[in-house]
Amino acid sequence: MCYYRHMTPLPFGNFPIPIDISPLVVGIIFVLVGIFVAAISVILIYHWRRFPFEYERFKWVERVYLSGTGALLAIAAASVIASIQGY
Amino acid sequence: MYIPLEDGEKILAQVHRHWWFILMRVFGAILLALVPVAIVVVAVWAGVVIFTIIGVMALIAIIALWVLVVWTFFWQFWTTYYMDIWVVTNHRVIDIDYHRLFDRDIAILRLNQVEDISTRMQGVLPWLLRYGSVSIQTAGSNREFLIDQIANPEGLRDIISKASSELRSQKTGI
């Protein structure tokens, strides 16, 4: 087993445990979550647009939902790209 | 529109379940979104784990994706909450009951069938937040039409009662 310089040998293990998440794994998770979110978004917007009451409110809801989803996807995408580029 | 209004029909009230029920979902979603962040922060602070710079970026991406999944599920809950609606018109009471996405019941009660309307607020929380149920007994059937977990049930009872009386007086010409 390889020991890192900053590791402290303890009776019950060596801490801290170095976590090195592969950018490839993160990229795959990003794609899978992206597909899931896209599918759910289509279903939700389909339901909202078909609802016969309070149409103006649903237009506002759609904007909030898409803004939030877009912002979170942008943060995730930027972080994935940064991890691939080695930052 | 899957419920076309009849000639001369006007919407008098649209009622959703009380906001308390979606507020609980909001708290649940916030808690669920923050749990992995809290676990990572505590683990790093306690010196149990350490992240490389690449690991930090990947971690931010994973947390953002987790929050995105929670966000999506929250809107799914919100949709089933908000689309659970009772619409009172001057002719009918329409109950659109969304159990989940792609699972919907629609029940219609004509106001001329209304025999008796009662309201109920049971428990400390319903009394504090002023929510409860309205039950409508119908003529010619033992079935009870229940409007549950709504804000200001007495107000809705008065609207239904008044609309029902007006409809009857129009029909009898009194």
Concise description?
With 87 residues, chain A is mostly helical. Chain A is built from 2 helices and 3 strands, in the order E-E-E-H-H. Chain A has helices at residues 23-50, 55-85, and strands at 8-10, 13-15, 17-19.
Walkthrough of the structure:
- The complex is a heterodimer of chains A (87) and B (174).
- Chain A has 87 residues and is mainly alpha-helical.
- Chain A has one domain (20-85).
- Helices cover 68% and strands 10% of the residues of chain A.
- Chain A has two helices and three strands, in the order βββαα.
- In chain A, α1 runs antiparallel to α2.
- The radius of gyration of chain A is 21 Å and the shape is elongated.
- Chain A starts with 7 loop residues before the first strand and ends with a helix.
- The model of chain A has no long low-confidence stretch (mean pLDDT 84).
- Chain B is α+β, with helices and mostly antiparallel strands.
- Chain B folds into two domains: 11-16 and 86-172, Roll (PH-domain like), CATH 2.30.29; 22-80.
- Helix content of chain B is 48%, strand content 31%.
- Chain B has helices at residues 19-45, 53-82, 124-129, 153-172, and strands spanning 11-16, 49-51, 85-89, 92-100, 103-110, 114-120, 131-138, 144-151.
- In chain B, the strands form two sheets. In chain B, strands 1-3-4-5 form a four-stranded antiparallel sheet. In chain B, strands 6-7-8 form a three-stranded antiparallel sheet.
- In chain B, a hairpin with a 2-residue loop joins β3 and β4.
- In chain B, α1 (19-45) runs antiparallel to α2 (53-82).
- The longest helix of chain B is centred in the middle third of the chain and has 30 residues, at 53-82.
- The radius of gyration of chain B is 23 Å and the shape is elongated.
- The chains are: A mainly alpha (87), B alpha+beta (174).
- β3 of chain A pairs parallel with β2 (49-51) of chain B.
